[in-house]
Write a sequence for this structure.
């Protein structure tokens, strides 16, 4: 399908959103970009052509066969003489569009409002529209004031000022009137222009939201929506130049862009023509709603995130079990005294604390309260997202996701702590508690993984796991283990071990009986094999021996063509009372770590030699 729409500025804030809307509407679009590699269209039939409006020869290919062309290009942040650059770019584009038979150009400029001396920025926006019209191609020009949306430079300037400065020394421009418009409404106007009848004229539409406010009024409304207390102190001393430098210190804008914006803020930008309202069936949304949408859309950029991942050798339902039981009588698995301290602090500052309660100890639904948290998202055996109900200088969430691995035999647990700070106090809070959060969340995920792998095993059952990456084919590694003599090759201190009987190999119900010791001082150990999956897994469990419980899973998984993940997983319980178990367990775990590290070295060397 040949594209009849050309979009310039598709890598920019407004152009990128317009591209998405046009693609969603099923329109064939061609994008002109100086750096095509930076553009990733959503629709497969969207074309991307390399070109530059300052290089007129590069425009002919882009404009070939185009009916309507969007001109969303300006260079305010690029260089000091941006007005001259914009003039030349528009002149090149207009001439190329006329040569290619383009039927109309759709241009977004700046709202000038009252007459009088305009800033260089606003004068350039007006001049660009005039240059495009001089080409002879009909031009639909929209003129807008501040665009409210996450990513808009004007909105980000307001956001940064209010978020970072409890007290703002404000120049006179904070009292200038403007008529801000939501980004969704701007995109709606630009898209609707494609369907206007083309009678050869070049209309100018002034577009804005339903309210006229000052810049100071917008900042106060933003602060109210974010729950921030801000004091604006107007002073007449800051020149536009100094104001631009000041903005560059506290906002993401470059100093040159900040000065250009501030210079334009001296001009009132209010809609004075009702033509857009009469022609288009678009009802712009109120300022409060536009700001709320922008705040919510931009929350991802503000958020502080701590993500941790672990993998467990159990199906998703078993991996999720300790997650769905969190809180209440079960507790939070780690750092109980820290949770109690946080609960106490919450009550000191007027909150409800961690009430140690939940409606159902096993199951929950969205909006259930779990201690000081509310269930925000819930997917059975897949996801639990908790929204913090504690007193915080911002909003917080704790998110758990379980993803199946290996056709559901194993699982990945992702634990994410998310904090959306409110103002400078919120940022200070996040960094102050970051070390504590690291300790708590790391410990909590470890305990959740242990609970998941232990399942419903009784207390006193311990788990040991040792994993290695082996340079060797998984099939060859498995065949090496199926040799009758492999068991002796792997046993530490083999001079004290003697195989007394061996039947059935590694397959289910295969058995091995051996004695351990020296001379007459020997004890017997008998094990039964089960869980055999060729080239992947085999298991053994103690039938007779020194342990109360011993269950050993050997797992081999191909990683690429010539590597394998080699894993030993042992569940064990020791005889005796609690104190005997603790004492012998403390000695056994380091022994197992050394013994299985040695075993893996043996396997690594043996497989490398095959």
């Amino acid at each position: 399908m040949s594209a009849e729409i050309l979009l310039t500025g598709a890598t920019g804030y407004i152009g990128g959103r317009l591209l998405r809307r046009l693609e969603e509407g099923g329109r064939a679009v061609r994008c002109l970009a100086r750096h095509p590699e930076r553009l990733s269209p959503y629709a497969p039939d969207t074309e991307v052509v390399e070109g530059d409006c300052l290089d007129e020869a590069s425009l002919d290919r882009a404009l070939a066969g185009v009916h309507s062309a969007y001109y969303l290009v300006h260079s305010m942040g690029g260089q000091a003489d941006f007005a001259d650059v914009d003039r030349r770019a528009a002149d090149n584009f207009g001439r190329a569009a006329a040569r290619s038979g383009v039927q109309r150009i759709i241009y977004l400029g700046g709202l000038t409002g009252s007459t009088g001396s305009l800033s260089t920025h606003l004068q350039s926006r007006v001049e660009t529209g005039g240059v495009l019209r001089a080409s002879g191609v009909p031009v639909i020009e929209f003129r807008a004031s501040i665009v409210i949306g996450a990513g808009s430079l004007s909105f980000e300037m307001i956001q940064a000022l209010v978020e970072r400065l409890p007290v703002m020394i404000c120049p006179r421009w904070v009292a200038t009137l403007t008529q801000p418009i939501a980004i969704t409404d701007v995109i709606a106007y630009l898209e609707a222009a494609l369907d206007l009848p083309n009678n050869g004229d070049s209309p100018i539409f002034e577009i804005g939201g339903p309210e006229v406010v000052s810049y100071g009024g917008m900042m106060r409304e933003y602060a109210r929506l974010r729950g921030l207390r801000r004091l604006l102190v107007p002073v007449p001393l800051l020149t536009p130049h100094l104001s631009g430098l000041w903005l560059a210190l506290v906002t993401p804008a470059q100093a040159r862009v900040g000065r250009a914006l501030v210079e334009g803020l001296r001009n009132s930008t209010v809609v004075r023509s009702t033509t857009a309202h009469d022609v288009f069936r678009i009802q712009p949304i109120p300022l409060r709603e536009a700001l709320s949408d922008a705040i919510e859309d931009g929350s991802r950029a503000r958020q502080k995130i701590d993500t941790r991942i672990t993998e467990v050798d159990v199906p998703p339902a078993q991996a999720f079990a300790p997650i769905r039981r969190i809180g209440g009588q079960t507790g939070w698995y780690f750092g109980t005294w820290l949770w109690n301290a946080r609960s106490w602090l919450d009550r000191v500052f007027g909150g409800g604390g961690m009430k140690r309660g939940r409606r159902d100890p096993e199951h929950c639904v969205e909006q259930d309260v779990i201690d000081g948290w509310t269930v925000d998202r819930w997917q059975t055996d897949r996801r639990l997202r908790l929204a913090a109900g504690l007193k915080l200088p911002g909003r917080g969430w704790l998110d758990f996701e379980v993803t199946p691995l290996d056709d559901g035999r194993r699982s990945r647990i992702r634990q994410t702590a998310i904090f959306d700070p409110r103002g400078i106090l919120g940022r200070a809070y996040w960094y102050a508690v970051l070390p504590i959060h690291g300790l708590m969340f790391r410990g909590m995920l470890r305990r959740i993984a242990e609970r998941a792998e232990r399942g419903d095993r009784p207390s006193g059952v311990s788990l040991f796991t040792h994993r290695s990456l082996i340079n060797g084919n998984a099939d060859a590694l498995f065949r090496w283990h199926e040799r009758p003599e492999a068991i002796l090759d792997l046993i530490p201190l083999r001079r004290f071990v003697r195989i007394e009987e061996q039947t059935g190999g590694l397959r289910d119900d295969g058995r091995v009986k051996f004695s351990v010791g020296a001379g007459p001082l020997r004890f017997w150990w008998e094990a039964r094999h089960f869980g055999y999956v060729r080239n992947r897994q085999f298991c053994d469990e103690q039938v007779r021996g020194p342990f109360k419980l011993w269950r050993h899973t050997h797992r081999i998984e191909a990683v690429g063509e010539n590597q394998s993940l080699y894993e030993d997983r042992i569940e064990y319980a020791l005889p005796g009372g609690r104190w005997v178990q603790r004492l012998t367990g403390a000695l056994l775990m380091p022994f197992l770590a050394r013994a299985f590290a040695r075993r893996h070295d043996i396997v690594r060397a043996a497989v490398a030699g095959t």
Residues 462-608 form a domain with the Alpha-D-Glucose-1,6-Bisphosphate; Chain A, domain 4 fold (CATH 3.30.530.20). The chain has three domains: 5-295, 317-454, 462-608. The first strand starts at residue 5 and ends at 8. The radius of gyration is 34 Å.
